[in-house]
Amino acid sequence: MSLFSKFKNNLQKTSNFLSSNILNSFKNNKVDKETLEELESILISADISLDVVEKLLNSVRKVKSSNQDIAQTVLETLAKEIEIILKPREKKLLQENDLKSKILIFVGVNGSGKTTTIGKIASQISNKKTLIAACDTFRAAAIDQLKNWAEKSGNDFYKGDPNQDPASVAFKATEKFNKENYDYLIIDTAGRLSNNTNLINQLVKLKKVVTKINTDTVIETILVLDGTNGSNMIKQVDIFGKELDVSSLIITKLDGTAKGGALISIANKYEIPISFIGLGEKPDDLSDFAAKNFSRSILNLEI
Ligand code: GDP
Q1: Mean pLDDT in runs of 10 for the chain (303 residues)?
Q2: Mutation test of ligand 1: which of 105, 116, 193, 228 has the most ligand atoms closer than 8 Å to its C-beta?
Q3: CA of 33 to the centre of ligand 1 (A)
Q4: Which of 124, 161, 199, 274 is deepest in the core (most CB within 10 A)?
Q5: CA torsion 47→50→51→53, rounded to 10°?
């Protein structure tokens, strides 16, 4: 399946909502006060923030009512405008020809999809010596789940003792990474309550430890967000982003929500790249984020 088909198939909840409502609103081929108001409320219902909605409405206002197929023109206009917002956020996290080794620290609240996403990434990596470290020492189930993904994907796994200080597990894992010349170190962390300052402090400490003993490796801090939370994701970017200098976002579960528009709000608000999106539970249901694919898919347009 092409990457675009994957986006198109798995973003159907958002695209069905947006395209069917927009086609219906503009079925009389008119751009006027009434249809623009309808469009506004459709976009807001898809969890697109007001500042983005305003931008989109401004571009649709310029569509001439004399145009033959207004509804289609509106969809095309929206897709172009959304692509312009999303394009600067495209960034590949891992490249096959990465010359430098990388340490990836995954953060995010419990249930956001961290472990599954790490598993998917691990199974997509090829020709790189990779170590996966379980630093969520509070949840035995999370450690087992991660171990399982590591084994399935044929990658090495490191875990500490139950309830051991996560930073000390990360320290040991980073030492192993240094000594044994790994290409990638993937660190899973605990994710209880995002407003729990202890959690954030603990993650800051973990990152400091890793950075201290590894000065020449690229360290990425990746925030995993549950896409079904819609615009509530913004709160989490604020909490995690401020203290942890998040360098990349991954938005999961976009297959399970009609609120995919929230991704656009995030791209508009933060200059943080979006590296992957989660489109299902299977290992290959994690795609590099692609602005054009996303913007055209959610409006049910072809590429
Ligand atoms: P963690 O607590 O952050 O490590 O979250 P998990 O990785 O355990 O994921 C929580 C749940 O979300 C699991 O049931 C996953 O299978 C599910 N999940 C993760 N990513 C996706 C996705 O992209 N789509 C769907 N539909 N489910 C997902």
Answers
A1: 95 98 95 97 97 98 85 97 98 86 96 96 94 91 94 96 90 96 96 69 95 91 98 95 95 97 98 98 96 98 96
A2: 116
A3: 42
A4: 274
A5: 70
